Amino acid sequence: MSVQMLTIDQDILDSAHLTVDQAKVELAVYLYSQRRLSLGKARELADMSLWAFRQLLALRQIPPHYDEDDLLADVETLRALRPQ
């Protein structure tokens, strides 16, 4: 796997009033909200713990990615774990 670098001019960061770390967080939140990144990959890009990233998403009122298929899979898991 090759590593690619994204370069953002300092004047752009200055205009946005962002540090490099803040820009990474903003990008991670945006890509997660657009369903372009999973929660794990987005928190990795943001360089935050899972708990901290989830809190940030909640503060910004960005719902978790959880749809009907996820619910059905969870129900099946619970049924399989239920004592017989």
Sequence-ordered SSE layout with sheet pairings:
Elements: H1 10-16, H2 20-33, H3 39-46, H4 50-59, H5 68-81
Helix pairs in contact: 2-3
Looking at this protein, list some descriptive labels:
about 80 residues; mainly alpha; 5 helices; elongated
Total helical elements: 5
Strands, total number: 0
Low-confidence stretches: none
Oligomer: single chain
Radius of gyration: 17 Å
Number of domain units: 1
Broad shape? elongated
Specify the structural class.
Answer: mainly alpha
- Mean model confidence by pLDDT: 92
Strand proportion, as a percent range, falls in under 5%
Question: What does this molecule look like?
Answer:
It is a single chain. The chain is mainly α. The protein has one domain. Helix content is 63%, strand content 0%. The protein contains five helices and no strands. Helix 2 runs antiparallel to helix 3. The N and C termini lie far apart (47 Å). The relative contact order is 0.10.
Question: Can you summarize this structure?
Answer:
The protein is built from 5 helices and no strands.
